[in-house]
Amino acid sequence: MLNTLSGRFLILTTVFVMLAEVLIFVPSVARFRQDYLQLRLERAQIASLALLASDSLDAELEAELLENAGVYNVVLRRDEVRQLALSSPIPEPIHATYDLRDGSPLELIRDALGTLVDPQERIIRVIGDPVQQGGLLIEVTMDQGPLRAEMIDYGLRILLLSAVISVVTAALLFAAVQAFLVRPIKRVVAQIRSYADAPEDARRIIAPRAKLLELREAETALQAMETQLTSALRQKDRLAQLGSGVAKVSHDLRNILTSAQLFADRLDSSEDPLVKRMAPKLVGSISRAVNLCESTLAFGRAEEPPPQLARLPLAALVAEVLEAERLAAGEDASVEFEERIPPGLVLRADAEQLYRVLSNLVRNARQAIAATGRAGRVTVSAREDEEAWWISIADTGPGLPPKAREHLFRAFRGGVAKGGSGLGLAIAAELVRGHGGRLDLLRSDEKGTEFAIMLPRSAPHPVTR
Fold first, then answer.
1. Which of 63, 244, 381, 435 has an alpha carbon 20 to 30 Å from 153's alpha carbon atom?
2. Integer Cα distance of 185 and 193 in angstroms
């Protein structure tokens, strides 16, 4: 009960209502005490009028008048000279004097609390104004015991009424919280559980219908999240199916390329100079294709194999990439390739994976320039500092369209070339991240596009536990 929202509301409501009743109780008891004392003064004034009506009263009648008024003595001052008085023996000395004529609210509350906490039988003097302008002042002495008993009885009735009000108020608030908060929240929780059982089922996405603004905003946000999650799960399922198909194709393609590799090895014995120059490149290309097929067989695990880091000269690798792109461009002389790699620059990377990254970026740049029908240049440059190696691939093409920039490194969504799958940049970014680096788009405008690869020089620190 204490761990539920409605239970805590019930307890807090009861506590706050009781606190409010206590704040009301203290002034009420003080007011009751003042009214009680004022009533005793009025009765004493009526009793004194009997003395005014006759010159003298016998002792029995005087005692009866004082008993009915509930006091021991009465002093009524009608002018500066004459005083009318009724008196009887006082059992003990006067303990305190209270003047009702000029008491402040705080003083009345203080005197009332003092009366409640004092269990002793006390004799008190009370001074006040006579009613109906019947004199200058009236003064009585009385026993405090009956006053305290009446105050306690009144206080208990007030506390009982407060308890009833608290229970009724708490019950009403409990019912209201159940109806307006707890039930809608439970409905949202039930919907979340239903959606969790089958997140691919779009029919289980919540439809906002709460009347409370805050709860409706929560349902709207939940609807957006569930919609995105369902879409992502569907895309993941499609990717899994595609991965299974690609793995099968890669398996068969690997066998075909292995056979082609065997035939290409025989070209080394040819005496034709052109064949001798092209044969090693053909063998290297087929070997890379076989390795790519091997890597693609792991596509179902949605991960690339970890890079095999080794020191390698960057200039030779870039030259091989550009040579392959020149061959792919064929007789199209509109694209010019330029490399600005320091001859002695050696970095630590996986040669095959870095080749794939550079090949993807250079190929995209070449295709972007060729699509414009104008001449252009692809430039690969590099530098190093104390923390990282930096490789830049820049072109003078038309720049990337805005839609491609929004999802540039996301598979199937960041395609640049028309008809492209959008996998090239996603794979390149993943391979660079596997090296602990990053692939960034530095600029893309009407003057061209530039990508930057950052490969850290230092190895990651081991995690200690």
1. 63
2. 12
Helices (H), 74-143: 105-117
**Model's pTM, two decimal places?**
0.43
CB atoms inside a 10 Å sphere around CB 215 = 18
Closest CA to 121 of 145, 142, 139: 145
Q: How many CB atoms lie within 10 A of CB 269?
A: 9
Neighbouring C-beta atoms of residue 148, cutoff 10 Å: 19
| Backbone φ, ψ for residue 122 (5° rounding) | -120, 150
Domain 305-456 - what CATH class?
alpha beta
- The number of helix segments (H) and strand segments (E) in the chain equals 11, 12
Q: How confident is the model at residue 348 (pLDDT cuts 50, 70, 90)?
A: very high
Helices (H), ranges, 272-339 = 273-296, 314-329
**Under DSSP, is residue 90 helix (H, G, I), strand (E, B) or coil?**
coil
Tokens of 75: 């002093």
AA letter at 90: I
Read off the DSSP letter of residue 199.
Answer: T
Give the helix ranges, DSSP H, for 54-143.
59-69, 105-117
pLDDT digit string (tens) for 270-322? 667 776 677 777 766 777 776 666 655 544 444 567 788 999 999 999 999 99
Cα–Cα distance measured from residue 88 to residue 101, given in angstroms and rounded to the nearest whole number: 25
Cα–Cα distance between 353 and 131 in angstroms, integer?
A: 107
Tokens of 354: 């870095």
Distance CA 414, CA 368 (A): 15
Place of tokens 């302008």: 133
Instruction: Give the whole-angstrom CA distance, residue 254 versus residue 252.
Output: 5
Q: How far apart are CA 199 and CA 189, in angstroms?
A: 15
List the structure tokens of 101. Answer: 């004529």
CA pair distance 317, 303, nearest whole angstrom: 24
* Separation of alpha carbons 245 and 299, rounded Å: 10
Residue 260 CA to residue 284 CA, distance in Å, equals 12
Q: What are the φ/ψ torsions at residue 120 (nearest 5 degrees)? A: -75, 150
- Provide CATH 3.30.565.10 ranges for the chain: 305-456
**Other C-beta atoms lying within 10 Å of the C-beta of residue 118:** 13
